[in-house]
Amino acid sequence: MVNTLKKPDFEEIRPGIKAPTKDTLLTPRFYTTDFDEMAKMDISPNEDELMAILEEFRADYNRYHFVRDEEFNQSWDCIDGETRRLFIEFLERSCTAEFSGFLLYKELGRRLKEKNPPLAECFTLMSRDEARHAGFLNKAMADFDLSLDLGFLTKNKKYTFFKPKFIFYATYLSEKIGYWRYITIYRHLEKHPEDRVYPIFRFFENWCQDENRHGDFFDAIMRSQPEILRDWKAKLWCRFFLLSVFVTMYLNDIQRYGFYAAIGLDARSYDKEVIEKTNDTAGRVFPVILDVHNPEFYDRLEVCVKNNEQLRAIADSQTPKFWQLFRKLPYYVSNGWQFLRLYLMKPIDATATHGVVR
């Protein structure tokens, strides 16, 4: 019997179907792009590597990986209260992010099929992977008495338009940071199996290899389009996307430190490791990376963390909306200032540190 007393109070669009989290600067987004421009891309400068990656996608190494076993077949009421709420939020955010990738890649595969068949097939096969990930996460949510209506999300969530080169920056970083997030959790729980409180974490090792292959694909695509990486504008945009991804992850994770504590991790230490690994990985393709070892980097992120705590406290207050906005304004300004100062920190020349020829 389901113990409804332990079920957190989430808004539902119908019984058992969770209402999507409201869009904010920190929530996963759905993307669309200029499909005609994408179709016209000439991938011949790096065709051999891209075809090798396509062969890996065709091999479908995780075809039989995402199969729920008997360990899932039990009540999860032992995970209750605030921890249960945080688990559901983690699963929802992860599912939404994976489903976002599925929708974008599926549409790219469909739109590019006639004009750029190899590229279209890569996107189609990546959409297959993302669909598996999203479905597996949604089934995990059902273990906690809720799930997402992915069809409802498709029709009702706002889509953000990015030009192709911005899609490449964003998706490359999304896939690579996803790899480092999953593998870091997996390696921790491999050493501390007593902290593996739910079986989905056993699947993270193979799972993150999908993320890694997807990231390698976008790496190869960007290197086939030299203008995406070589000019001064590319350096500015690479810094912007690196910073945006790192700030978003840090603020989200510190806000949900209880989830990481439940699996034996310190959210700050975990995020710093993931940020440093992702930043270093990005240096293999991006012309510049961020100086994330500079203490100022995390000092400014911590100011944003404190600002966000104040913003949440104001939002939870019973004061009128117009007064809330007035009270929030200084914290918004402070966050913007911290982001600007982080952006203006001297970057690291990745072409020198990684010895990559652009």
Model description:
64% of the residues lie in helices and 4% in strands. The protein has 358 residues and is mainly alpha-helical. The chain has a two-stranded antiparallel sheet. A two-stranded parallel sheet has the order 3-4. Strand 1 and strand 2 (17-18) form a beta hairpin. Mean pLDDT is 92; it is low at 1-5.
- pLDDT < 50 stretches: 1-5
Strand coverage percent: under 5%
Distance between the termini: 60 Å
Rg estimate, integer Å: 21 Å
> Can you tell me the overall shape?
globular
* Helix proportion: 55-70%
Mean of residue pLDDT?
92
Strand-pairing-aware structural class:
mainly alpha
The tally of strands reads 6
Strand order of the largest sheet: 1-2
**Helical stretch count?**
13
- The helix/strand series, from N terminus to C terminus, equals EEEHHHHHEHHHHHEHHEH
Major sheet description: 2 strands, antiparallel
Which keywords apply here?
358 residues; mainly alpha
Task: Give the helix/strand layout.
Blueprint: E1 12-14, E2 17-18, E3 30-32, H1 35-39, H2 47-59, H3 81-112, H4 117-142, H5 150-156, E4 159-161, H6 164-191, H7 204-224, H8 232-255, H9 257-262, H10 267-282, E5 288-289, H11 295-316, H12 321-344, E6 348-349, H13 350-353
Parallel strand pairs: 3-4
Antiparallel strand pairs: 1-2, 5-6
Helix pairs in contact: 2-4, 2-7, 3-4, 4-7, 6-7, 6-8, 6-10, 8-10, 8-11, 11-12
